[in-house]
């Protein structure tokens, strides 16, 4: 079923589903920017930097990267080396894209499982961060969950290339100014 813009309900649902992790990544990026600004100001003016800035930067970077990963994976917006693209056209390009996405999704299941095991170990050992004493299992479970969701997104993208290629968006090439 499509609306007046030609967008299917599945595509609209996908846009809304991608909104939450995108907003999370944006909010964390903003928090990182504000923290860095105040850290630099405090370091320069009062010679008193934010002690936990390094720890927070690590946590914020992990949240940003792993929040965005499923969305980027589904949209096919990864950095791509396209040296062999001229050799693949039409159906062969679709088969190649399906195989790459299925293979990548299947491979990501193992790291997701391993990080989940590490999160359980951090929970059992009571591991906490150095300055803020934040339990480390929170971020580890988050990373494992988002890696698992990314694997599912890649597997779904690979299947979509086979059964419903119109649902899979190709990442647009960056616009170049020829003038």
Describe what is shown at a glance:
The protein is mainly α. The chain has 4 helices and no strands.
Describe the SSE topology.
Blueprint: H1 9-45, H2 53-75, H3 90-125, H4 136-163
Helix pairs in contact: 1-2, 2-4, 3-4
Would you write up a description of this structure?
This protein is mainly α and 179 residues long. The chain has one domain (9-167). 69% of the residues lie in helices and 0% in strands. It has helices spanning 9-45, 53-75, 90-125, 136-163. Helix 1 packs antiparallel against helix 2 (53-75). The longest helix has 37 residues, at 9-45. The N and C termini lie far apart (42 Å). Mean pLDDT is 87; it is low at 171-179.
Approximately how much helix is present in the residues? Answer: 55-70%
User: Which sequence of SSEs, written as H and E, runs from N to C?
Assistant: HHHH
Query: What is the number of independent domains?
Result: 1
Mean pLDDT: 87
Rg for CA atoms: 20 Å
The shape, in one word, is: elongated
Strand element count: 0
Number of helices: 4
Uncertain runs: 171-179
Which labels suit this protein?
4 helices; disordered C terminus
